[in-house]
Design goal:
Blueprint (H helix, E strand, L loop, with lengths): L1 H18 L3 E18 L3 E7 L2 E7 L8 E7 L3 E2 L3 H7 L12 E11 L4 E10 L2 E17 L2 E16 L13 E15 L1
Antiparallel strand pairs: 1-2, 1-3, 1-10, 2-5, 3-4, 4-6, 6-7, 7-8, 8-9, 9-10
Protein name: YceI family protein
Keywords: Signal
Pfam family, one: YceI
């Protein structure tokens, strides 16, 4: 009877370990960078960044295809190093931040491409329109904070692209912009 109880307890632990193989992380907003660039009338690439980024990551190191990520970006936090341009980009001509205050990315599939790399496909929602976008992601490192061994941090870098017109920003050409945007994302996240 004792052997049966021990076996059942061990099986329960193994099943629980399988069910909860993914670790949960919260994106550190002070160490999250989402930047973009797009062609400006052939003269140069116009650059910008978003200053307010939050998100949750479920990271299964044994099987990354079972991982997931959700990112939420405050659309009004856009910064292109020019206040008047930023105000215009927040208007209904572009991001329409009053009606659509958040830009979101929610992963839908992950394909492992190397020891520390993957293609992460997800739904990008921008100005009320949702389209699939694929990001090339690299897992950089995971380690405890040097000043706090109890806090574990992990980090990722990602790149991707999308067509702004397809995501509902139809006036890009009126201002000599786009239509294609390149994304660069760097995130540090703290294990919960």
């Amino acid at each position: 009877m004792k052997l049966l109880a021990t076996t059942a307890a061990l099986a329960g632990l193994l099943m629980a370990g399988t069910a909860f193989a993914a670790d949960s992380y919260e994106v550190d907003p002070a160490h999250a960078w989402v930047s973009f660039k797009t062609n400006h009338n052939g003269w140069a690439n116009a650059h910008g960044t978003f200053k307010s980024v939050a998100g949750e990551i479920s990271f299964d190191k044994e099987d990354v295809t079972k991982s997931s990520i959700t990112l939420t970006i405050d659309a009004a936090s856009i910064d292109t190093n020019h206040e008047q341009r930023d105000t215009h980009l927040k208007s209904p001509d572009f991001l329409n931040v009053e009606e659509f205050p958040e830009i979101t990315f929610t992963s839908t599939a992950i394909e492992k491409t190397g020891d520390k790399t993957a293609k992460v496909t997800g739904d990008l929602t921008l100005a009320g329109t949702t389209k699939p976008v694929t990001l090339d992601v690299t897992w950089n490192a995971e380690a405890p904070l040097p000043w706090d061994a109890n806090t574990l941090k992990t980090g990722f870098s990602a790149t991707g692209s999308f067509n702004g017109v397809e995501l509902g920003i139809t006036k890009l050409a009126d201002f000599g912009l786009g239509p294609d945007f390149t994304l660069d994302i760097d995130l540090e996240a703290v294990k919960k």
